[in-house]
Write a structure and sequence with these properties.
The chain starts with a strand and ends in a 7-residue tail after the last helix. It folds into two domains: about 1-140, Rossmann fold (3-Layer(aba) Sandwich); about 145-205, Arc Repressor Mutant, subunit A (Orthogonal Bundle). The protein has helices at about 15-30, 40-50, 65-75, 90-100, 115-125, 130-145, 150-160, 165-170, 175-190, 195-205, and strands at about 1-5, 5, 10-15, 35-40, 55-60, 85, 105-110, 130. The longest helix is centred in the C-terminal third of the chain and has 15 residues, at about 175-190. It has ten helices and eight strands. It is of the alpha/beta class.
Length: about 210
């Protein structure tokens, strides 16, 4: 995988050492050059500044500075930076925050080597590359119903297994008010039970189930 001046140079940012090593090995085998590895977002920003990679592979959950923060800092200094998110997180919120921060692509870690290398090539050319599953979530988000902040708070506590009484106590609202919010949630999500509401919300990336 070459540019006019040689192989594409890749910076890999992930807090798991074994995973970083595995990704680096795969990339080297595919003809790329790994010009740096970062275990946290702060280091990723520094190494990007020092080594100016063609593409940065960025995980989202990292210490010191998370992936979204690192993407934003890099793009602030270098608006043309090519950053491809490579993560296990695929909720609507994760996807939207990363793309808004400036990522050109979003790929999940269960991607094949072929998908990864193709995504790197696309992103290196300044094009957007999003995994099919992620694209489906984005499309679903465009058409899904909008929840109020209070409804979303109730929904997330519901997903945590809280009872109506516990949700009311956590949000400092009456139990009867919780029931009203649940009624609205059921209508908006087109479900008829708490279990169905949690499942529907998880599919839309509104909550993470354990």
């Amino acid at each position: 995988m070459e540019t006019a001046t040689g192989p594409l140079r890749i910076l890999v940012a992930d807090d798991h050492a074994l995973l970083r090593a595995g990704i680096a090995s795969v990339l080297a085998g595919a003809g790329f050059v790994v010009c740096g590895e970062a275990a946290d977002g702060e280091t990723a920003v520094r190494l990007h500044e020092e080594r100016r990679p063609d593409v940065t592979l960025m995980d989202l959950q990292m210490p010191v500075l998370d992936g979204v923060g690192a993407i934003a800092r890099i793009r602030l200094r270098h608006p043309d930076a090519n950053i491809l998110v490579l993560t296990t997180y695929d909720t609507d919120d994760d996807i939207e925050r990363a793309l808004r921060a400036g990522a050109r692509g979003y790929l999940l870690k269960d991607a094949s080597v072929e998908e990864l290398t193709a995504a790197i090539r696309e992103v290196s050319a300044g094009r957007t590359q999003v995994a099919r599953a992620v694209a489906a979530k984005l499309a679903d988000r465009m058409t899904q119903v909008q929840l109020t902040m209070r409804e979303l708070a109730v929904l997330r506590l519901l997903a945590d297994g809280k009872s109506n009484k516990e949700i009311g106590a956590a949000l400092n609202i009456a139990e009867s008010t919780v029931k009203v919010h649940l009624t609205h949630l059921f209508e908006k999500l087109d479900v008829s039970s708490r279990t169905e509401a949690i499942a529907a919300a998880a599919r839309r990336g509104l909550v993470r189930t354990r």
